[in-house]
Design brief:
Blueprint: E1 14-18, H1 19-23, E2 29-33, E3 39-46, E4 49-53, E5 56-60, E6 64-68, E7 74-78, E8 83-89, H2 96-105, E9 110-113, H3 120-134, H4 141-159, H5 169-185, H6 193-200, H7 204-215, H8 219-237, H9 242-248, H10 254-265, H11 269-283, H12 294-297
Antiparallel strand pairs: 1-8, 2-7, 3-6, 3-8, 4-5, 4-7, 6-9
Length: 299
C-alpha cells in the first residue's frame, strides 16, 4: 500500500481497499514505489488514468486489471472518478496452486484490458466479494476471501493467456505447481536440484529449463526467492530473532544467512527489519500484535 508498508489485518495475509480511498489521500497521484514482500492486484471498473509499470507507461481504460509482483517499481495517476479496488497479499501465504498461477503468468507487472474478456462479470463479482468480506468480521471471513482470491487469480491468468507464448503450457504448469509444493514442504531442509528433478521424473537440465520458462528464474534463484519472502514476512510480522529465522529456514550458520540475505536484498536482516519498522512508524500505520513465528504456525 502506498504510504503504508504494513498490511493491516488479523493474520497479515491480505488487505483490500478502494482506489478512491487510497488515491484521494494523495491528490489521485501515487508516486513511484515498490513493495519488497507484497503482491498487488488492482481491478478498475470506472474512471481513467495512467500506470507506470517497471519503467513503461500504460493508459488505464477500464475495465482493466493490473498485477504487480513484489520488488517492481510502479506508480499511478487516476481521475477523480476512479472506481475500483486494490488487493494486497503476501504471496507466500497463498496456496501453492495460486502461487504457481501468479509466477507463471505475472512474474513482471502487467496491465490486462478486460473489455472483451468473457468472464468479466464473474471477475468483477469476485473483487466485489473480497472487498465486502474484508469490511466484515463475520464467521468464515478469511476463508471466503482466500477462496475468492484463488478464483480471481485463476480468471486473471485466463485473461493473460493471449499474452503468453509457447506450447505445452498445461503440463508445465502442473509440474511447476508440484515443484512449488515440494519447495514449500522442504523449505526448512533445503534440497538440491537432483532431489526435485527425481520427484518430478525429470533430468536436472529439463527441470531448470522448465523453471526458467515458467518463472524466468533458475531453480536455485526460485528457492532463494521463496526463502527471502518467508524471511521478510518473519522480520516484519514476528518478534523472532534473526538467528531463529535463519534456523527455521534451514541455515545452520546465522552468519551465512546474513550474507545470503544481504546478497539478495542489499541489506542485512537486522538493517532491513529496522528500515521497514521506520517506514511503518513514518506512515502512522496502526500497530498490530506480532506473532512468535509465521514458520512455526505453518508447520
Amino acid at each position: 500500500m502506498y504510504g503504508e508498508e504494513a498490511v493491516q489485518g488479523t493474520d497479515f495475509r491480505f488487505h483490500c481497499e478502494t482506489l478512491f480511498s487510497r488515491s484521494s489521500l494523495h491528490r489521485f497521484e501515487i508516486g513511484l514505489h515498490r513493495h519488497a514482500a507484497f503482491q498487488q492486484i488492482l481491478y478498475i471498473w470506472g474512471g481513467e488514468g495512467d500506470a507506470l509499470l517497471d519503467g513503461r507507461i500504460e493508459a488505464i481504460r477500464p475495465p482493466v486489471a493490473i498485477v504487480v509482483p513484489p520488488g517492481f517499481e510502479h506508480g499511478f495517476r487516476f481521475s477523480r472518478d476512479i472506481g475500483g479496488v486494490i488487493v494486497t497479499v503476501l504471496p507466500g501465504a497463498l496456496p501453492a496452486s495460486v502461487q504457481a498461477l501468479l509466477l507463471r503468468n505475472f512474474h513482471r507487472p502487467v496491465l490486462l484490458p478486460l473489455r472483451d474478456f468473457a468472464d468479466g462479470e464473474r471477475l468483477r463479482s469476485g473483487f466485489e466479494q473480497i472487498s465486502a468480506e474484508y469490511e466484515t468480521r463475520e464467521t468464515g471471513r478469511d476463508a471466503i476471501i482466500e477462496g475468492q482470491l484463488a478464483i480471481v487469480t485463476a480468471l486473471l491468468a485466463r485473461a493473460a493467456r493471449p499474452l503468453l507464448e509457447g506450447t505445452g503450457e498445461g503440463l508445465a504448469e502442473q509440474r511447476f505447481e508440484f515443484l512449488l509444493s515440494l519447495i514449500a514442504r522442504h523449505i526448512r531442509e533445503p534440497q538440491k536440484a537432483e532431489f526435485y528433478a527425481k520427484k518430478l521424473g525429470l533430468s536436472e537440465t529439463h527441470l531448470n529449463r522448465l523453471v526458467r520458462s515458467v518463472s524466468g528464474l533458475s531453480l536455485q534463484r526460485l528457492i532463494a526467492k521463496r526463502q527471502i519472502e518467508i524471511a521478510q514476512q518473519e522480520l516484519i510480522f514476528t518478534v523472532s530473532s534473526v538467528q531463529m529465522i535463519a534456523e527455521g529456514l534451514g541455515f545452520a550458520d546465522p552468519a551465512y544467512f546474513n550474507r545470503f540475505f544481504k546478497r539478495e536484498t542489499g541489506m542485512t536482516p537486522r538493517a532491513w527489519r529496522l528500515a521497514e519498522q521506520r517506514k511503518m512508524g513514518d506512515s502512522g500505520a496502526r500497530q498490530v500484535p506480532l506473532q512468535t513465528s509465521i514458520l512455526a504456525s505453518s508447520r
